[in-house]
Structures are given as structure tokens and as C-alpha cells.
Amino acid sequence: MSTATVEVPALPEVHYLNVNYGWRSWLFTTDHKRIAWLYLVSITFFFVVGGVAATLMRLNLIEPQGSLVEPATYNKLFTVHGLIMIFFFLAPAVPTVLGNFAIPIVIGARDVAFPKLNLLSWYLFIAGGGVFLYAVISGGVDTGWTFYTPLSTTYVNTNVLSAAMGIFISGFSSILTGLNFAVTIHKMRAPGMTWFRLPLFIWSMYAASLIFILAMPVIAITMVLIMLERIFHVGIFDPALGGDPILFQHLFWFFGHPEVYILILPSMGVISELVAAFSRRRVFGYSFVAFSSVAIAVISFLVWGHHMFVSGQSIYAGLVFSALSFAVAIPSAVKVFNWTATMYQGSVSYDAPMLYALGFIGLFTIGGLTGLFLASMAADIHLHDTYFVIAHFHYIMVGGAVMGYLGGLHYWWPKMTGRLYPETWARLSALIIFVGFNLTFGPQFILGYLGMPRRYAVYPPEFQALNVLSSAGASILAVGYVIPLIYMIWSLRYGPIAGPNPWGAKGLEWETSSPPPTHNFHETPIVTEEAYAYGARQEAHVA
Amino acid sequence: MPEGPAPALVAEQFDDIIQQRDAASFGMWIFLATEILFFGGLFASYALYRSLYPAAFAAGSHLLKVAYGASYTVMLICSSLTMAMAVRSAQLGRRKPLIGFLVLTLLLGAAFVIIKLRWEWYGDYLEHLVPGVSFAPQGEALEVIRRFGAPLSHVALFMIFYFVMTGIHALHMVVGVGLLTFLIIMAYRGRFVSGDFNTVEMVGLYWHFVDIVWIFLFPLLYLIGGRY
Ligand code: HEM
Ligand SMILES: [Cu+2]
Fold it and tell me: Given an 8 Å threshold on Cβ–Cβ distance, is B45 in contact with A234?
């Protein structure tokens, strides 16, 4: 496979991208690597749609009385933005693109356990996304991504039905993906690839899969109940008919909080890979980091009540949920400490993926710490439903998860395409994203602390300066996202040939050719050493 | 009847048939776990409303016909037995009994669905017991509700859960009947009896799961409120 000429690496003659051509070879593929591309294109599309909605919101908020849209339209914008970003962009992003591409290669398998099911997941995703887009076009939805009852079931007359249907269908896509990954990780590892030799990305993906498996069915049945209530006008959640709207919140957040860990866990796994590869050191405290992923998955199912402190839940329940929410911060902090400890005395190089990783660590820490403010009941009474919450979850989801996704995409891009992206541009855009992000969402902490509520198209004039700052930051952020889109497409054709291991990183995926053959390896690899076996430090950068 | 050579039975991503079998059954168990969570949302909601409105739930239960519920239970338990026999026949490589037991299972399952829709639910409809479609209990039904002193809207909540829970269960039965039809056709063509019985086993797991759900639904819906 890899030629002896170190100087000018060449693309392998046959690889998964050129074994066959034509739309059939893509739409009916069962190759996990090609399915990853199908997802990459689809979620990028959804990211753009969600981004347009965000842009319109930020434009509107430049002026206190709202500069652009009617309040009713604004409601639709934030609902569509939230639903798309969560269900159709971020939840699938790392798992279905990077996970699909990398998991089988990283564990030394030829494919996932159920390749056809994998393709079916994508079709379900597209079907769910299509139904959801129909909801958006045919009048939109304006309930917020949380679908709170009885607003969503009784009072609004927008397209809740098809939106819920879209979420329901795409939920099954996620369930099948989680199932496929869990089985793959259990049953498809190469000989010698024991659990404690697995790269930490796999541990995180495993934990995230568990959440997919156990949380998505709950939102699916909840959406069924919402749909039934709207179709038949029965009172499942309608207090006027004896129904209990708080029950809906319990069901929703029993899914909803684990869902946010679906968003962050896979990215945490990516960061472990990046930190090790670009510090040339084994991740400090490997087993702590591995088990922290599992701990997060487990505890995340026990904290949903922290979204309901002011919903009339009993104060004792609130106390327990508050304490458990503090507990979930522990395994998250373990990761942050261990990543920084890994860099300590490592030989750190600042390639673009590492810049994203560093961004992740800082921004995730801010997002996580402000989460603790919100998990304290007294503070939350003031902060609930303000921009403080918006800032908190964007620090985690955009500052954390999206950064991790972009870092991982850059890291594995040479493997996916066989070509390198332009490094200077990549570093530049990582920097722009970091700056733009902080300018956008940093001021929102202050706005929320000062009492500006979320989900309003207008606001008192004294909040204008910070809102303009936020909108200005958003435009910088947008530039930061557009640049990679351009140079990555450019690199598909013109990028320099990468060779099998451009980073000099450890891991099975770097031992096969770039791009890999259809079945990933010419011979089943046999694993004889632990993950991240970076020996003496001099070894770095030999290639 | 003799099928292709063994290697053709192993999909290319697997090393051997053992790995393939392990993966399939592990996947199936995970799928059943997701099903438990799916039904779990319904059971949890049921539990909440039953504890909020015990009288209405007791009254609602009295509106259901136990004879139906009991006969479904018998039918499903029998069908689990025949399904288990089908799996055993496949493992032993015996084609005729395999087909026979699959057909029996299918008949029991189909009978369940048909009786439920054609007689039980249609009867409920005629008695105006279907919330959202036609809910105006009369005569004896109304008496029962009065006797328990339950508000109509709360009884309607019980009926909603009755229809949604048994409805989703029935939907699973329909899927099961579809799977059985597929198995029967394949078995007829000679599949499943040369060591490749895995698919039959998987459908069997699914079928037993759906039966077990019913074992919970029956008492929770038909037998509560001091009825027996
Ligand atoms: C990239 C991933 C992103 C995710 C996953 C995400 C997620 C969310 C979610 C879940 C909501 C809440 C929606 C609701 O409660 O109905 C929201 C609201 C919002 N987001 Fe994002 N978002 C992302 C990116 C962005 C970007 C890039 C911007 C700005 C440029 C932005 C600006 C906003 C604004 C203005 C709101 C509405 C606040 C309100 O009125 O309540 N988001 N986002
Ligand atoms: Cu939460």
C-alpha cells in the first residue's frame, strides 16, 4: 500500500472513492465511508439552513424594536433554527460523519456490523429532514424546539404536526445508528484490539450510542402523543381536560438532557484523539477518561429536572436534581484536566485540528462552569429563560461540539479524501471562529444576567449595545464557517496528496492508505500495543 | 433444498458465522431495549394518570370486555409456544415442522389483529367510547362511570391510553405478521435449515417481546379497579 517514496506520496491506485462511479454507487452504497459522505453533504445543507435562520435573528436584534421581522416570524425563526441545529445538524454531525467514517477503521474492521441498516439510517434521516422542511415551508412552527404543551398541542396553529413527524422519523435514524455503532464496537474489533486498547474516540462514541439507544425512543413516543393530541383533539397534556402539561416536560427532558450529551460526547472523543496526536503523548489517565464517558452517559439520565426548577416541580425533587447535576460536572472536568495534563510535557504542535481542540477546551470549560450556575436552584430562578441560558448552551454546543466536529473533520480529512487542506487558511479560520464565537455569545452572558429574556423579537433599548456587539460577532463567526467550506471543496481537487499518515499519528486508521480501500485494510490488522503508543519524543515529525 | 456453500451465508464484513450470529443477536437485544423505552414512556404516563385519577381508571377498565382481553392472552401465549417450536425446528434443520409452526404462529397473530380491529374496537366505536372520534358513553357504560363518580374527561384519558397502548402493540403485531410471512416464504424455498437459523431466532425474540408487552397491558387495562 504505502509506497517507499516518502517525498512525493501518491494516491493508491484503487480506493473506496474510485472503485466505481455514478449516482447508484453512492445512493445504494453500503460502505460506511461513503455513507459518511452522504451525511456530510446532508448535514452541511442543514447547517446552512439553520445558519440562515440564525442570521435573520441576529439581524433582527440589532435594533430594540426589531429591525427585520414580525414577532410571529421571529418565533418561527428560533424554532426552526433550534430544531434544525439540534436534530438535523449537531446530533448527527460527529457520529454520522466522523463516527461512520472512522469507527470501523479505528477498530480494525471491514465495515460496521450492519451496513444495510447504516444506509437505511441515512434514508430515514433524509425522510425526516424532508418532512421537517415541508413543515418549515408550509407555514413553519413556532413552539420553540421544546414543543412545550399545551402551547404546542392546543394553542398554536402552525405546522406542529409535520414538524413532530419529522423529528419522529429522524429519531429512528439515530436509534439505528446508535445500535449499529454499539454492536460494531462490541463485536467487530480486530484481533488484539481489547477494550483498553481502544482509542478514546471509540469510548465516547460508545457512550453516545448508549444515549441514542435509550433516549431517542422516549422522544419518539412523546412526539407520537403530541401528534395524536393534535389530530384527535384529546387531552393527553391539556389541563382543561385533566391532562398534565408537566408530564410532557418530564418526558421531553428525560430525553432532552441526555440529548445534549449526545451532542458533546462524540466531540469529546475527537478532542482526546487530537490532543494525543498533536502532543505526541498517550492521553494522561487513559482509563479515567474512558470511564468518564460512560459515567457521563449514565448520570445524564438522572438530571433532567434541572430544566424544570421553575415549572412547579417539588423543591425536594429540585434539590436532588441540582445535586446530581453538580455530579455530572465531575466526569466532564476529569476530561478537561486530563487533556491539559496530556499537553503538559508533550511536544505540542499547533496544526489546525489542534487549534480547534484548544478552542474546545477553553470554551467547553466556560460552558460547563456556567452550567453549574444554572444548576443552582436559587441562581436559576433569576437566569432561567434568559440569554444566560442561550450563551451557556452555545458555549457548549457551538464552542464545544461544533469546534470538535471541525477539528475532527480537519484531522481525518486527509484520510477521507487522500488530500491535505491548506494549512494556513485552516489555522486562520480556526482563529476567526474562536474570536467571532466569543464576540457573539460572550455578551449574551451579560445580557442574560441583566435580565434579557430569550425568545423575544424586541427588547428594552438599554440592551442594544451588547446586542449589536453580538450581531457583529455573528458576522465574523459566519466568515469563519464559510472559509473552510470553500477551501475544503477546493482541496478535493487541488489539495496536495496527503500520504497514509500526514500527522505522524498513531492508530490503525493511519496505517492503511489514504483514501483507504473499500474494506479498509488489505489484511485484517492485528493489534499488539495500547492506543497512543508514542514512544520516545524524538520520534515525532520524522516523516 | 440444499443451499449454497456455508461461506456465502457470511456477510463480507464478518469473519465467520459465529461473529455474524453474535452481532445479530446482540443487535436484536439492543433493539428490544429501545422498544422498552418506547413503551416505557406510555407506561410512565399511564402510571401518572392512574395515580391522579384512580376512580376514572377503574371506571374505564369496567368499560372494556374482559372476554376479548383474556382470549388474546391465551392466543398470544400459544403463539409464543409455536414460535419457540419453530425456532427449535430450524435449529434442528427440520423444514416441514419449521414451516408448520411458523404458519400456526402467523394464524394466531393474524387472528389477534383481526378480532381486535373488527370486533373489539369496532364495538367500542359503536358504543361511542373512542375519544377524539366519538366519545359519548351511553346506557350501561354511563351508569358505570356514574357509579364511580368519575368525570367523563378523565375516563376519556383512560380510553386514550387504552387505544394508544393497545394500538401501538397491535401495530407491532402487524409487523410481526409481516416478518412471519417473509420467514414462511423463505423457509418454503429451503432457507434456515442448514445452520442459518439466525433470522428465525431473531424474529422469535421480537415475537416474544411483543407478547410480553401484552402480558403487562392485559392486567393494567382490563383488570384494574377491583374488577376481580
Ligand atoms: C451550530 C450549532 C448551533 C446549535 C446547535 C444551536 C442551537 C440553538 C438552540 C437549541 C436554540 C434554542 C432554540 C429554542 O429554544 O427554541 C438556539 C437559539 C438561538 N441561537 Fe443557536 N445554535 C447554533 C448556532 C448558532 C449561531 C451560529 C448563532 C448566531 C450567529 C445562533 C444564534 C441563536 C439565537 C439568536 C437564538 C435565539 C435566542 C432566543 O431568542 O431565544 N445559534 N440555538
Ligand atoms: Cu440539561
Answer: no
**Residue length of chain A:** 543
- Closest atom, ligand 1, to C-alpha of A144: 16
B174 part of a folded domain: yes
Contacts of B123 (CB under 8 A, 6+ apart): B65
Q: Cα–Cα distance between A321 and A304 in angstroms, integer?
A: 7
Residues of chain A with pLDDT below 50 are 1-5, 537-543
Check residue A149 and report its DSSP letter: T
Query: Which CATH number does A29-510 carry?
Result: 1.20.210.10
Containing B129, the helix (H) or strand (E) segment is strand B129-130
Give me A285's grid cell. Answer: 489517565
Q: Which of residues 148-177 of A touch B (CB under 8 A)?
A: 175
Say what the pLDDT of residue A392 is: 98
Q: Nine-digit cell at B76?
A: 398470544
- Pairwise CA distance, residues A276 & A340, whole Å: 10
Nearest bound ligand to the CA of residue A482: 1
Does residue B2 form part of some domain?
Answer: no
A443 Cα: distance to centroid of ligand 1 (angstroms)? 14
- Whose atoms come closest to the Cα of A144: which ligand? 1
C-alpha cell at B47: 402510571
Q: Whose CA is closest to atom 2 on ligand 1? A: A398
User: pLDDT-derived band of residue B8, with 50, 70 and 90 as boundaries?
Assistant: low
Domain count, chain B: 1
Q: Tell whether B85 is covered by a domain.
A: yes
- Summarize pLDDT for B70-128 with one digit per residue, the tens: 999 999 999 999 999 999 999 999 999 999 999 999 999 999 999 999 999 999 999 99
Nearest CA owner, ligand 1 atom 31:
A54
| pLDDT for the residue B227 | 75
Q: CATH number of the domain that B56 lies in?
A: 1.20.120.80
The single residue listed with the C-alpha cell 440444499 is: B2
Cell numbers given for A219? 422522544
* Helical segments of B92-197, H only: 95-114, 122-126, 139-148, 152-188
Task: Check pLDDT > 60 for residue B47.
Answer: yes
Residue A324 in contact with residue A299, Cβ under 8 Å? yes
The residue whose CB lies within 8 Å of the most ligand 1 atoms, and thus the one to mutate among A43, A73, A363, A394, is A394
The ipTM assigned to this model is 0.93
Q: Is the minimum CB–CB distance between B197 and chain A shorter than 8 Å?
A: no
Look at residue A7 in the predicted model and tell me its pLDDT. 59
pLDDT tier, B10 (very low <50, low <70, confident <90, very high otherwise)? confident
Domain ranges of chain A: 29-510
How far apart are the CA of B67 and the centre of ligand 1, in A?
54
Cβ contact B164–A225 (<8 Å)? yes
